[in-house]
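Reviewers of the previous submission asked for a worked example of the structure-prediction workflow described in the proposal, so we include one complete record here. The input consisted solely of the amino acid sequence. No template or homolog information was supplied to the procedure at any stage.
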Amino acid sequence: MSSESSSELHVVMFPWFAFGHISPFVQLSNKLSLHGVRISFLSAPGNIARIKSSLLATPTTQIISLPIPAVEGLPPGHNSTAETTPAMAGLLKKALDLMQPQIKTILEDLKPHFVFFDLLQHWLPKLASQIGIKTISYTVFSATSTSYLTVPARISEEGESPSIGDLMKPPNGYPSTSITSVKAFQARDFSIVYKSFDGGPTIYDRAVGSRLGCTAMLLKSCQEMEGPYVDFIRTQFKKPVLLTGPLVPDPPSGVLDEKWANWLGRFPAKSVIFCSFGSETFLNHDQIKELVLGLELTGLPFFLVLNFPAELDSQTELNQALPSGFLERVKGRGVLHTGWVQQQLILAHSSVGCFVCHSGFSSLIEALVNDCQLAMLPLKGDQFLNTKLIAGDLKAGVEINRRDEDGYFGKDDICEAVKAVMLDVDKEPGKSMRENHKKWREFLLNAQIQNKYIAELIEELKAMA
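From that input alone, the workflow returned the following structure tokens.
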């Protein structure tokens, strides 16, 4: 396709049914469609309205609804992991595997140049190759976590899965970076990647199978931030590894809700702690108690967002988790909210000086492009490794201290981390963190660099098509 324009490229997007996966596929679709690439976006019926609200509407973009096959135990209408318990998320994977006939029919009809697919559809490369369509395994996780967890070096020559002890150390051949080990409680969390449920393929099997079978891999990353990890992935999979760049979100449209704008506007610049853990990362009651007491201990105003699994009542959970008298003691300087908030607009508010978060990669990028410091409390999976990238390699934030064996953190751990980035600004390590945050903010906001990554990606796709 070297002599043809990118408008003749047609890409099908097929993410896993979790909004943490769907959003990066939407972001990339928008970047590509601005360069004239035709996009066909596949998802379950219940996700379409939300996708439509963020996917750029162009004459060359369409959304195709995928009915979820019936699976015993999976209630009708469950279209994303936000609506399911962990057990039901496993059933949703079974439903995904049953979609192969309808996916084949759609691809035969559309005849795209490429299918960009997620890590769980390990069967897609073979299916697509049978009808002459190339596949791009698009990894929405950081290269840091991908290189640590889902590379062939993680499985022994005898085919044995890694032990907890193995997972506390990087795989053989890992680059020399700040990541030399992880804590025992984190390694135990990682072990779920290598476990089979109901005899089905493990997450590791799906992810590595997807990458070994595809035409090329695509990472939501850039050489400047994750170069050593990108290079290690290239050596592990021995195939083209393309990069999107860090996919900086567009500036948010609209204005902050008047209720929150008025509340935040009462406080001095850079004085408020914003604390949120996304829509699918949850704290238990003991963790909530120590978190809120730690925020109280800082003496600073705070805006805390807490969410709970879909099957639980949020108000009941809060009543059980919050310490006695807490709400009365922080009245006027502390806000507790459950549900969705305008995170980008809150992070951009002049009074917000610190973001305490779970280290989801998209949230970290949103924080880095705003002038608010990072105190990270990762709770599962890739979040632990994302934190090490930001705190260890880039030195642009602080990790909240936790006990090695069980991950316990107390109110003092919360308070000390926040003070390091918000109050001790002329002491180390806070001083260097602010300087590094500023450096990476300038890099991420450089539109020329971002556009260069997308333009190069399109040229590489045209050469492969």
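The chain has two domains: 6-248+446-464, 258-444. We consider this example representative of the routine output the project will generate in years two and three.
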